[in-house]
Amino acid sequence: MSSLTVGILNLNEAAMTVQLLDQVAQLPEAGWDIQLIVVDNGSINDEVQRLTDWFLSNKHQFEESIFLGASCNLGCAGGRNAILKLAAGEAFLFLDNDVILPDNPEWLTILWQDLLADPDVAIVGPMLVFSNYPEIVQAAGSGLTSRGRVGYLHRGDPVETVPAMSVQVSISPSACWLLRPEAQRTIGFFAEEFDPAQYEDVDFCVRLGLEGWKIVCNRSVRIMHIGHVTTKNIPGHPFERLNVHKAMRFREKWAHVLPKIATIQQEEIYWGPIPRPVDGG
User: Fold this and answer.
1) Which CATH number fits domain 2-268: 3.40.1830.10, 3.10.450.540, 3.90.550.10, 3.30.40.10?
2) Which of 139, 196, 200, 239 is the most exposed place for a label (fewest CB within 10 A)?
3) Given a cut of 80, is residue 190 above it in pLDDT?
4) Residue 86 belongs to what H/E stretch?
């Protein structure tokens, strides 16, 4: 039996989080020894109560279950750091609460095998697909330009056109991460300068890469992801302003190495409508 810490954050999206928790609760039946840690980032009382009720009803399904209710928003980095401080598994699985996991738990076994196959791999992520267009790629890993712009690889491409194989990438979106504890200990915690959200996962991947760790996207595993459910609804932090501010912070921090670690060109980035227009624009 493999020991795994599963970490999830919630902010005023208890109904969605409970749907994911119900899926995670099926993993022990597939032979996984699960330590479940959920951090609520200052939700309203009714939301916290809903999660509390779920834990009281389902805690017996896990080797250990921990629910932390913060009185304020710790942020994505701060919340995940709280999880890391308690994590005890052989590997750590971070999940955004707006992912929809496959019914067959084989997806986790495939990611786990990639992590075991190469001791230099720090993170294994899946290929993310749009929840409303599961036949279209949302991100098959990410790349960076020399100016620090992030681009989702194969975004908008039909899933069937992307080879179902493991590929080394420079960044994996943190909606679904299988993380090696030894790699995390090498670089420390998530950088809380990026709280409440945005670019903390990109920064984490850059730090891993600079220490010689590899990041892999297994494109045979497809996980549906809604995207930006929490980040677009953080009180006092309009999404577009937040994204621009954290992007600027990231570029300032890593300007001295960006030309050396860039993996894509500006023209390779596509942030247009999904599905892509027929003319490819």
Assistant:
1) 3.90.550.10
2) 239
3) yes
4) helix 75-86
